[in-house]
Structure to design on (305 residues):
């Protein structure tokens, strides 16, 4: 009889070693990896004076280096839409009142989110997540502020920072420093300071033109969006590939021009929480109304849970 390569008496020992290796691999995949992942995700957002964005990037890079897994995750992400944060001016019309959330109410909302385990992330984090390059905390929330009003910069940022949160501000790049009626727009200095405090600044076009109005040709749309990014890069040193549509208005050809101008994600005013990453150019948001009390806010956030 031809002698076997492995003597028979060793079979049991070899099978035992295999069993141990397979058990160890299974323990890592099903037990330790979720724990390690949760631990990573619980890292608080790095918001500091100095160079906070590079800190944020390092944190994301660290998670990518660890090989964060996105597949199979369930998510329901409220992307909150605010405009003014502060007092309603005298003689304000119904629209202005609806767009204005008081500091006190905003503070209550942020506190409730923090107390209920929500962690804020930036739009750039969401994009990296959609690209499979990072993971998100178990309960992510995104704060967006449209139009670049000075009151949002002055009043929302201290509250967000108090809770270690980040806000994403959609700036109309021809407007900084201007006053139009009851609307005062933050200056570039204020926007730059916000950025240094870890806030995210994204494009909301150069002049808030209505993207669904047929009088704006493809070239106009492209030049405006491209110009918006150039303005942000000039004043802030960088522009994120994220757009907020003015009025939430866009068309199919608008999206083509936005993508040509380098945008990879765009936010609408469609009502709802994000639960699919299939259409990054039509991201829904949750509008927060001026007259909304905390009970209504909670109901909207918890809807569907
Ligand atoms: Zn707007």
């Amino acid at each position: 009889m031809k002698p076997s390569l492995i003597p028979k008496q060793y079979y049991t020992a070899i099978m035992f070693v295999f069993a141990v290796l397979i058990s160890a691999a299974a323990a890592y995949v099903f037990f330790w990896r979720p724990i390690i992942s949760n631990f990573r995700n619980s890292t608080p957002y790095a918001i500091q004076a100095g160079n906070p964005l590079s800190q944020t990037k390092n944190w994301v890079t660290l998670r990518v280096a660890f090989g964060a897994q996105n597949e199979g995750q369930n998510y329901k992400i409220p992307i909150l839409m605010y405009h003014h944060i502060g007092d309603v001016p005298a003689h304000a019309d119904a629209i202005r009142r609806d767009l204005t959330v008081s500091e006190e109410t905003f503070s209550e909302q942020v506190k409730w989110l923090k107390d209920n385990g929500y962690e804020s992330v930036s739009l750039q984090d969401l994009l990296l997540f959609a690209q499979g390059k990072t993971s998100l905390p178990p309960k992510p929330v995104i704060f967006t502020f449209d139009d670049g009003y000075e009151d949002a910069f002055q009043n929302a940022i201290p509250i967000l920072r108090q809770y270690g949160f980040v806000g994403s501000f959609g700036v109309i790049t021809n407007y900084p420093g201007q006053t139009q009626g009851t609307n005062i727009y933050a200056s570039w200095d204020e926007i730059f300071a916000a950025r240094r405090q870890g806030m995210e600044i994204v494009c909301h076009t150069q002049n808030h033109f209505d993207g669904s109005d047929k009088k704006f040709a493809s070239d106009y749309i492209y030049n405006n969006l491209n110009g918006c990014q150039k303005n942000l890069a000039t004043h802030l040193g960088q522009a994120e590939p994220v757009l907020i549509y003015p009025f939430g208005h866009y068309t199919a050809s608008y999206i083509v021009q936005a993508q040509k101008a380098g945008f990879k994600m765009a936010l609408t005013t469609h009502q709802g929480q994000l639960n699919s990453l299939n259409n990054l150019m039509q991201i829904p948001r949750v509008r927060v109304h001026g007259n909304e009390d905390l009970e209504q806010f909670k109901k909207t956030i918890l809807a569907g849970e």
User: Anything to note?
Assistant: Residues 8-40 form one domain. The chain has two domains: 8-40, 42-302.
